[in-house]
Amino acid sequence: MAQKGKGEAVSPVKNFFAGGAGGVCLILAGQPLDTIKVNMQTQARPLPGQPPLYKNTLDCFRKISAQKGIHGLYKGLGAPLAGITPIMAITFFGYGLGKRLQLKGPDDGQRLTSPQVFAAGMLAGVCSTAIMAPVERVKCLLQVQVHNPVVKYAGSVDCALQVYTERGVRGLYKGTLLTLLRDVPATGMYFMTYEWLKEFLTPEGKSVAQLSSIRILLAGGFAGVCNWVVAIPMDVLKSRFQIAHEGRYQGFADVLREVLREEGPRGLYKGFTAAMLRAFPANAACFFGFEVSLKFLNWLVPGK
Ligand SMILES: CC(=O)O[C@H](CC(=O)[O-])C[N+](C)(C)C
C-alpha cells in the first residue's frame, strides 16, 4: 500500500498519558455491556428442562436493569476506572516502546510494517498484564455477584482486600497466564488493525495525521472488534477460572475441558454478542480520547 505521509514521531511517555485518557473514555462507553458479557459467560448451567437464567444479550440487559437498575450495569466501575486507566496508559506506553525499539530514532520518518506493528502490540499486551490480571479478577468477582442473593463484596477495594486476606498476592493474580494468552495476540491485532485502517481510510494525497474524527472513531471501533474476535475464547476461560472456588480447576486445561464437554466449541464464544456490541463504541471512544489527548500533549510539550 502507498505510504500516506511520514511516520509520526513516537513518544512512549506521551503515549502513556494519552493512553490513560483513552482508558477513561473506554470504560465510560463500554462498562454496561462488559457487565452483560461477564454475566452471560459465567451464568450457571440450567438444570435439565429449565431455561437458562439469561436467554440472550437483551434478556440479560433487561433482567439486570430490572433487578438493580442501570446502576447494576455499572457495578464494579471503580475497579476498571482505577485499573483500566493505568492499564491503557501502560498498553499505549508498551506500544510506543515497541515501535521505538524498531525505529532508528524517535522521528526517523519510517513507517512500520503491519508485522512490526503487531509485534509492538504484543509487547504492549505483555506490559499491561501486570495490572490487567488482578483488575480483571476483582471486576469479574464483582460483576457476577449481581445475581447472587448474598452480597459478599461491598466494592472493588473491599473485594481486593478480601481476596488478598484470604489468598494473598497469588489470589489476586489468579488467571494471569490466561490473561497473557488472551491479551498478547489480541493486543497485536488491536494495534495492527487500527494502524492499517487509519492508513486505509486516509484519502489519497493526505497524511494519516490529518485523519478526520469520524475515521478515527471507525478505525478504533473496528480495532476493538478485531481485538475481541481473537480474545474471546481465552476470555471465556479466564472469566470462569477467575470466579471459580479454590481447587475447582487445576489449571486452564481443566476449564477448557469442562467448557468443551458441557457446551462444545460454541461455549468458547459465550458473551460474543455483548463483547462485540461493547467493543465498537468503547474502543472508538478509547482511540478518539487517545488521539485528542496526544494532540493536546504535542501542543503543550512540542518535541519528544
Ligand atoms: C481485553 C481488553 O481490555 O481489551 C482492550 C479493549 C477493550 O475492549 O477492553 C484492548 N487491550 C487488550 C489492548 C487493552
UniProtKB/TrEMBL annotation:
Keywords attached to this entry: Membrane, Mitochondrion, Repeat, Transmembrane, Transmembrane helix, Transport
Record-linked Gene3D superfamilies: Mitochondrial carrier domain
GO molecular function list: O-acyl-L-carnitine transmembrane transporter activity
Mode of membrane association: Multi-pass membrane protein
InterPro entries linked to this entry: MCP (IPR002067), MCP_dom_sf (IPR023395), MCP_transmembrane (IPR018108), Mitochondrial_Carrier (IPR050567)
Keyword Repeat belongs to the record: yes
Organism phylogeny: Eukaryota, Metazoa, Chordata, Craniata, Vertebrata
Family to which the UniProt record says this protein belongs: Belongs to the mitochondrial carrier (TC 2.A.29) family.
GO biological process: carnitine transmembrane transport; mitochondrial transport
Official protein name in the record: Mitochondrial carnitine/acylcarnitine carrier protein
Transmembrane segments: 72-97, 117-135
Main location: mitochondrion
Organism: Pleurodeles waltl
Subcellular location: Mitochondrion membrane
GO cellular component: mitochondrial membrane
Residue spans of the Solcar repeats: 10-101, 112-200, 211-296
